[in-house]
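Recall the central idea of this unit: under ordinary conditions, the amino acid sequence of a chain determines the structure it adopts. In this exercise we apply that idea directly, starting from the sequence alone.
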Amino acid sequence: MRAPPYSTTKVDVVRVPNGATSDVVAVEEPLEIRIGGKPVAVTMRTPGHDEELALGFALSEGLRPAGVRVPDDLAANTVELDAPGFDPERLARSFYTTSSCGVCGKGALEAIAVEAAHVDSDLRLPAGLVASLPDRLRESQAAFEATGGLHATGLFDEEGTLLCLREDVGRHNAMDKVIGWAFVEGRLPLARAVLCVSGRLSFELVQKAAVAGCPVVAAVGAPSSLAVELAQDRGVTLCGFVRGGRMNVYSEPWRIAL
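Accordingly, the structure predicted from this sequence is:
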């Protein structure tokens, strides 16, 4: 298991008490997302799978992207989204996203709420299968193994097979990359799949899962109160503290077969 070369870099470090040496850290660089040649967002991300990131971001923001490409000016760390029907007036509500939180920099609170249909999937999963997902995710986190500094999102099918895993310094970026992959592969909505994340569950991650039509979201860490409220409202089964064969199911528990 080897980390992609673009996701890590070496830096000098002084280790106490051992002295000077080097360390491997996660790469963090800005990515500018454009529509119609105009920047609509900048996100701090780990390079790689940038097209998937832009597509997942657009879908989560309620857009209907048709594709993504290199910009005409070939600018580095920039992608151009093809989003027919995009309203330029939305540029007035442009925002700057960080690697830690994708919504905290938004210019208006109303921009947070993205319409997502109620998730009506009849998927039911054995509790033991869901409980095993974080370990399966961790086994495939090559960049985290090298740096200890990256979040991950994994997409699993109903048999527990890992379909796609993406790592990033931003937890929301990792999920956007997975959703973007699913879009390219024609797998949306994710009615027969599970999303598993390596950290805590925020409102935004549940929102992204709901937009993608995913019925079950599992996390190693805790959910926020707003994440639970959104999951209950949108019909998403939310599983937190999934570790050591245990979990807390905060919404739609009927999908987890004990």
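The radius of gyration is 18 Å.
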